[in-house]
Amino acid sequence: MLDGRHTPQNVTIYSFFLGTVFSASVFVGWYSKTFSQLGIFLAALSLFHELEYLFTALFNANILSLDSFLINNGQQYHIAHAAAIIEFLIEAYLFPNHKNIKLFYYIGFLAIVVGQIARSCAMWHAKHNFTHMIQYQKRKDHVLVTTGIYAYLRHPSYFGFYYWAAGTQILLCNPICLIGFLVAMHKFFSDRIREEELLLIKFFGNEYLEYQKKAFIWIPLINNLTH
């Protein structure tokens, strides 16, 4: 077990771990006055990873693996979330009153919910066309999805993660990590979207160029990047 293979035992362990974290975090978020935001953050984080695997299993079983949980999402990903937890704990100790701003709490929570819904809808509507990795070759069954949430957003999964991640830092009232997250996500998504758009134009030609005129990205400073 835990040898990196995609076995029922390992999937069960991953899901049990995420479920345990989610349940404990909801309890903390509901009952703790000091660590309420931290509980909601960890609950949102564990739910995000579980849903990534679930939707991949539903629509892309042929490429399903333990990596579909996105838990092993790179060192920088883990450093970012560790930094968020550390900043919250330090600032909660030094400036407890600054961690209890209800406006930020509600804005952050709303952004997390909207972001997660957008991300999940992207995977639901794209179905087998959705993958976590950039596809450099057009598959025979790859079609351009322009219905559902894709009728309004060109890259709803990126839109969803952007606002989900930003929302977690607003919820935690983490000014340092919020700035760091926004800078890092802008760099990552601007590069990735530019690369994907060029590939999609190559795959679908005028069909995608027309689609660009109807659906937008809606991520700050990236909206008109590829026009």
Radius of gyration: 19 Å
- Just name the CATH architecture: Up-down Bundle
Question: How many strand segments?
Answer: 0
- Compute the number of structural domains: 1
The general outline is: globular
Distance between the termini: 48 Å
Largest sheet: none
CATH domain fold name? Four Helix Bundle (Hemerythrin (Met), subunit A)
Secondary-structure class: mainly alpha
Strand content: under 5%
Question: Topology, please?
Answer:
Blueprint: H1 8-31, H2 36-59, H3 75-94, H4 102-126, H5 156-171, H6 175-204, H7 206-214
Helix pairs in contact: 1-2, 2-4, 3-6, 4-5, 5-6, 6-7
Structure description:
By secondary structure, this protein is mainly α. It has one domain: Four Helix Bundle (Hemerythrin (Met), subunit A). The protein is built from seven helices and no strands. Helix 2 (36-59) packs parallel to helix 4 and helix 5 runs antiparallel to helix 6 (175-204). The model has no long low-confidence stretch (mean pLDDT 94). GO terms for molecular function: protein C-terminal S-isoprenylcysteine carboxyl O-methyltransferase activity. Keywords: Endoplasmic reticulum, Membrane, Methyltransferase, S-adenosyl-L-methionine, Transferase, Transmembrane, Transmembrane helix. It is an enzyme of class 2 (transferase). It is a multi-pass membrane protein. InterPro entries: ICMT_MeTrfase, PPMT_MeTrfase.
